[in-house]
From TrEMBL:
This is Glutamyl-tRNA(Gln) amidotransferase subunit E. Residues 481-624 form the Asn/Gln amidotransferase domain. It comes from Candidatus Nanoclepta minutus. It is an enzyme of class 6 (ligase). The keyword Glycoprotein does not apply. Its EC number is 6.3.5.-. SUPFAM superfamilies: GAD domain-like, GatB/YqeY motif, Glutamine synthetase/guanido kinase. Allows the formation of correctly charged Gln-tRNA(Gln) through the transamidation of misacylated Glu-tRNA(Gln) in organisms which lack glutaminyl-tRNA synthetase. The reaction takes place in the presence of glutamine and ATP through an activated gamma-phospho-Glu-tRNA(Gln). The GatDE system is specific for glutamate and does not act on aspartate. GO terms for molecular function: aminoacyl-tRNA ligase activity; ATP binding; glutaminyl-tRNA synthase (glutamine-hydrolyzing) activity; transferase activity. The keyword GTP-binding does not apply. Belongs to the GatB/GatE family. GatE subfamily. Heterodimer of GatD and GatE. Pfam families: GAD (PF02938), GatB_N (PF02934), GatB_Yqey (PF02637).
Amino acid sequence: MDYKSLGLKVGLEIHFQLDTEKKLFCDCPTEFGREKYRFIRELHPSLSELGEIDPAVEFEWKRGRKYEYIFAENDCLVEADEEPPKELNREALLISLAVAKALNMKFPDEIYVMRKIVIDGSNVSGFQRTALIAKDGYIEVNGKRIGIQTLCLEEDAARKVEERENLVVYNLDRLGVPLIEIATAPDIEDPREAEIVAKRIGTLVLLTGKCKRVLGAIRQDVNVSIKGGAKTEIKGVQYLSLIPKVVEYEVLRQLRLLEIRDELRKRGLKKEDLDGNIYDLTEILKNTKSKIIKNSLEKGGKVLGIRLKGFKGLIGKEVQPGRRFGTELSDYAKLYGVGGIFHSDELPAYGITQEEVKKVYEFLGLDENKDAFILVADLEEKARNALRSVLNRIKIAFDGIPEETRAANPDGTTRFMRPRPGASRMYPETDIQPIRVTGELLKESEKYVPEPFEVKFERFVKEYGLSKDLAKEMIEDIRLSLFEELVKKYRNVEPKVIASILINDLRYLRREGYEVDRISDGSLDELIGLLDKGVIAKDSVNDILIELSENPEKGVLEIVKEKNLFKLSREEVYKIVLEVFEKFYDRISEKRDKAINIIMSEVKKVVGNRYGSRELYNIIYEILKEKGFIT
Ligand SMILES: [Zn+2]
């Protein structure tokens, strides 16, 4: 695809959780704690400064959900919104100033804490506190200047742990953890470039050594638009490597939706002519074999439908791999608690027969060859709300693409989350005094200004003996500061071995499908510690990592015991090699040139990964030499 001529514009919003001692507006630690009790709240939208209700806020409010909060032993009354916030955390402030400086940004005279309305329940108070720290900076990437619009310091939202139809459960442990939000200008013009820019910004923040290192500590949002399209905000892209795909698929989606708009125009269809009525089709489908419909009817539900004159073939049109226009509509329906929709382009299917499809067409007075319909089976009110939501989405299709906030799926496709918020959702936090940006403050922040990439790179290669590739990857990795800690702590393990475990082994296992990102820093620390003391051999590291990815709460020593992975002594291995030598003496004599390989594979059967391959090789070599097999 020629992204230039499509007018692709990509902007990034990257969030980094800071590893500060305390939360942003209270003295609670930023570590997770055990549950103490739960409480329930409902939220209502309040008017913004401009006296308007934000569309995203209104949307959440209409869903009418309740929120349950888990109050943990590490939390205080600030998180529960029972007490006003304390002063802005100074450590977090200094770190953000340092990052802003590294991004060539300009500082205001005073920093104000603002309240940003959020009503998905992720903040107990109904707003998120955020402070603009700096603006108008830039970063040079491959000779091109990418603008950095803003850097904000904000409190992280509560952590969603469960979502039921009318209730969302949040854990307050994450609420208030300091978060740096860096927003680039829409200067990125290519999907690959988006990944490179995200990586460069990520490296810069990681180099401060103050970024948290748990899964989800860095979260990327990607804003995508093309000429004639709409600005779409895609939230929660977990991996950098997924960014190009997310951008590519979003461009594809926007192009396909524009094609649908053009086709609607070509067919002479108009928004005003769309039938907004909802029809009851329960009678027609009351004896259907479709399990979904049968279940709904048994619960006292109904089958409701809408008429889409002239839409034949359009609902089934693919907009992203494996996702159709119908899937987009279904996302809108699902927000009202229904399981999904049936549309005529995919029927007969799901137990709905050709005969039944025909009857529905007849009942709705539609032409099977030209028109389409959509059905929802559920309790009447839910089905009605869902279909209304679908109708509203279809109306937008006549004009093009709606401005949406979407969520990234693991395969790079996206799904609708909510309408894009407007600009009118900020107002000042009156509980906190503005902070003057003085020369003194800026000077103090200098201690956090990151060691430049080149300096660290030199050090890793020269001092630690890492290859250039490994050094580069280690610096760009989320576990950079863990690496530096481990190198200092464990002198018996070579730095390049530690780096290789953190980079190569984890990457290999991730590719094999293991969820290695669930492994905590504490476990990795313990693992390297056991290597350091010679309790385990390097060869059993992968076995342990696999077990940890499946049971991250297990202790490493516990796993070593369970799987009997204790490193064998040289004497034990020596003895085993001798035994193998005797047992296979005839074979080895016959094939002298293969002697090492034969013994190696036989010994491995006994020793497994409990001894290093290189050391084992040395023992075999030694014995064969003694026996005169090698001269
Ligand atoms: Zn607190």
